UniProtKB/TrEMBL annotation:
InterPro entries: UDP-glycosyltransf_plant, UDP_glucos_trans. It comes from Quercus suber. GO terms for molecular function: UDP-glucosyltransferase activity. PANTHER family: GLYCOSYLTRANSFERASE (PTHR48048:SF83). Keywords: Transferase. This is Udp-glycosyltransferase 71k2.
Length: 359
């Protein structure tokens, strides 16, 4: 019967040795044509462990132990130094939120949660200012005033695309706005982030769902990119469903369809409410998804004038919410740039009336 010899070399450490020997025993139980020799690195065991080591294979004649000659290990100081370096090793992330205060606030809240989970990160947030205006600088900086590990960099102002484009196609307007900032983003990272990479390496770019053009910048810099998706999991599932639907059915959505079955939604969705881009085929690949949220800034720090309310009005609203029965209030958030026509607003109002919830 043809046989084969295997040589096992476990790492120093009794746990590694025991698990390797147990694996050898299982392998021999499966196929008795093997014989196995285990080479034992003794440096970390000490001579008083020889008897125990041999006892591990005392009942198994097909496993042979060879204790390698003792070699003095590196100095203990080196081990402690390396261990300390591993514990303190840090990484830099660059966050790129889309223009819009809701996107900026949620991205910063996510950054704070991430830092609470692992304080080895430091985070730089690149702020596209085009839609904020200079009067927002103080408010933007106040968002991270209490968090020294988050650094804000306001990108140079670039004139946004013409308003006519926004009225004609919001998607195209946002895409052109983000595209126009790619050069500034890359230069800012090279000049203000990478100079620190010798001590804190750049680990990746976290880009907003509307800033996917910045993935090109990540590729050029040779770092990974992650898309921060600020909509719901149901809508993300819907977007993932688009290429699958085309592969299975060979058709896009048609505006003439009354409603459509979408796996991530409980009920059929009226086709009339779907975003315009779904009526054109998009060839997309689905990257890994990491769930998080909700990300809500519940405690406003200073500027109550932002959003058109003062502190008294803010407290009145919060008191009214606190006084309502649990799970009785529906909040509709359309984002900082959300807008609807009169007919859509009427349908939203009708749906709210029929929901039986406060709003």
């Amino acid at each position: 019967m043809k046989r084969a010899e295997l040589v096992f070399i476990p790492a120093p450490g009794i746990g590694h040795l025991v698990s390797k020997i147990e694996f050898a025993k299982q392998l021999l139980d499966q196929d008795n044509r093997f014989s196995i020799t285990v080479l034992v690195i003794k440096s970390t065991y000490g001579t008083n462990m020889d008897t125990y080591i041999h006892s591990l294979v005392a009942s198994e004649s097909r496993i042979k132990l060879i204790l390698l000659p003792h070699i003095d290990p590196p100095p203990q100081e080196l081990f402690l130094s390396e261990l300390s370096e591993i514990k303190m090793k840090r990484a830099e992330l660059v966050f790129i939120p889309a223009p819009g205060i809701g996107h900026l606030v949620s991205k910063i809240e996510f950054a704070k949660q991430l830092l609470d989970q692992d304080n080895r990160f430091s985070i730089t947030v690149l702020v596209i200012k085009s839609t904020y205006g200079t009067n927002m600088d103080a408010y933007i900086h106040s968002l991270v005033a209490s968090e020294s590990r988050i650094k804000l960099i306001l990108l140079p102002h670039i004139d946004p695309p013409p308003q006519e484009l926004f009225l004609r196609s919001v998607e195209k307007y946002v895409a052109d706005l983000i595209e126009s900032h790619k050069t500034h983003v890359k230069e800012t990272i090279i000049n203000q982030v990478l100079p620190n990479s010798s001590s804190i390496p750049l680990a990746g770019l976290v880009v907003d769902m509307f800033c996917t053009a910045m993935i090109d910048v990540a590729h050029e810099l040779g770092v990974p990119s992650y898309v921060f998706f600020t909509s719901s999991a149901a809508f993300l599932g819907f977007m993932f469903y688009l290429p699958k639907r085309y592969d299975q059915l060979g058709t896009e959505f048609r505006e003439s369809d009354h409603e459509s079955d979408i796996p991530s939604y409980v009920n059929p969705v009226p086709t009339s409410v779907l975003p315009s881009f779904v009526f054109n085929k998009e060839d997309i690949e689905i990257p890994p998804v990491y769930t998080l949220g909700p990300l809500i800034k519940l405690k406003s720090q200073t500027d109550f004038s932002f959003g058109g309310i003062n502190q008294a009005q803010h407290e009145k609203i919060m008191k009214w919410l606190d006084d309502q029965p649990q799970s009785s209030v529906v909040l509709l958030c359309f984002g900082s740039m959300g807008s609807f026509g009169a007919s859509q607003l009427k349908e939203i109002a009708l749906g709210l009336e029929q929901s039986g919830h406060r709003r």
